[in-house]
Amino acid sequence: MAIITNMTRTVSKPAFILILMFTTLAISAKASDIPPAIHRAERIGFAETRLVELGYWITKVDNRFDDSTRQAIIAFQKVNGLKRTGVLDDEFLSKLVTASRPAPKHAGPAHVEIDISRQVIFLVDDEGQVTRVLSTSTGSGERYLSEGKWDRAYTPRGTFKIYRQIKGNRKAPLGTLYYPSYFNGGWAIHGSNSVPAKAASHGCARIPRFAEKEMSSLLRVGMPVFVYD
Question: Which residues pair with 149 in a beta bridge?
Fold first, then answer.
């Protein structure tokens, strides 16, 4: 089978052909335009390939609906104002056909943005382009009890910098933080076993476990972090 290689991903020729086919639907971009006979694996392959092209975090384009595929779909739905279902349906595919790469709120140099209202994280390069989009779950706003004290689950807004990273796990009073990158006191971007489609953390920016190590390597001490609604 012919293989087409582009940057960090490898895409099969059939998947590439599907991209061309789906792109021709962009003129009308209606759900009814998407051929219902397309096999589920091929639909997944098209979605994965297209999501990677737009910057969404997919671990591997392999026509399999794994957690990174589901989280990328949720991230896309968040960015584009769709219902956050994680389901690869006709509405999602129709929107995917004509979508463009998300735009950051801030220009370069390289930085990370935590968009609270949309619950996504953008990694932005020196040219001001979003290179990675990842779903996150930030402070829920609810009260919680920790070590005998009540506090409110809040993610601070503002401009910060990564000041410390742990290349591994840290057991904290509120749970285990996987590969945390701290940007303000005890607040960090870190891997978590629970990253729902809504704000649900104690204040940190949770990310899926499949992305924690690579995210840690892409971030660096001193990198600006913008947190906004």
Answer: 146
Residue at 65 is within a domain: yes
No. of helices (H) and no. of strands (E), the chain:
5, 14
Instruction: Give SS3 for 138.
Output: coil
Per the domain annotation, does 103 fall within a domain? no
Contacts of 200 by beta carbon, 8 Å cutoff, 6+ apart: 137, 140, 194, 206
What does the alpha-carbon distance between residue 42 and residue 46 come to, in Å, rounded to a whole number? 6
Question: Dihedrals φ, ψ of 140, to 5°?
Answer: -75, -20
Exposed/middle/buried for residue 4 (C-beta within 10 Å: 0-12, 13-18, 19+): middle
Residue 207, SS3 per DSSP: strand
- Choosing from 67, 98, 129, the residue where a domain stops is 98
CA distance 97 to 100: 9
Of 64, 98, 132, the one marking the end of a domain is 98
Q: What pLDDT digit, counting tens, does each position of 42-59 carry?
A: 899 999 999 999 999 999
Alpha helices in 90-174 (DSSP H): 90-98
Shared domain check, 92 and 22? yes
The structural domain count of the chain equals 2
13-45 tens-digit pLDDT: 544 445 555 544 443 444 445 555 457 888 999
Nearest to 210 by CA among 101, 99, 56: 56
Residue 217: inside a domain: yes
Q: Around Cβ 164, how many Cβ atoms within 10 Å?
A: 10
What residue numbers bound the domain in which 134 lies?
A: 111-228
Q: Is residue 89 part of a domain?
A: yes
pTM of this structure? 0.84
